[in-house]
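User: I'm putting together notes for a lab meeting next week and I want to include a structural view of one of the chains we've been expressing. I don't have a solved structure, so I'd like a prediction I can at least talk through. The sequence is below, exactly as it appears in our construct file.
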Amino acid sequence: MVRTRTKKLRGGHYGRGMKAGRGKGKKGGNGMAGLGKHRWIWMVKYDPLHYGGKGFTSHHYAKPPVAISLSELETLYPSLQKKGYVESGEIPVINLKNAGIDKLLGSGELNLKVKVIVSKATEKALSKLSASGSTVETDG
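Assistant: Thanks for the context. Below is the predicted structure for the 140-residue chain, given as structure tokens.
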């Protein structure tokens, strides 16, 4: 059967009545319309951060201090030497500040006679190092 213009414009062919089924059809709004209603699932799937980010940024974050014990210092001594944190001389100088270590703890033993540069050290670490003939340079 030949379709005439009149028959074509009466609708029914596209399944949406007359003008709604032609072209873009019934879109449900322009742009971001309907994200809180009929396009909610689309938003959750493809734009989950549409209404803002998740969580918050704490501006009061303090990095915990990095600490090392005397026994760990003895085992790490060769690697610190390779990385250039040990200045060789009559008495080697270990610069723990430059290595990113903030505190020296007193557990274990250090069987080397060295000078250690560190931000903080415990009393136990200071007494053990001074007993072995080593020296410690701290900030406070």
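A couple of points you could mention at the meeting. The chain has a mean pLDDT of 87. The beta strands are 67-69, 86-87, 93-95, 103-105, 115-117, 120-121, 135-137.

User: Perfect, that's what I needed.
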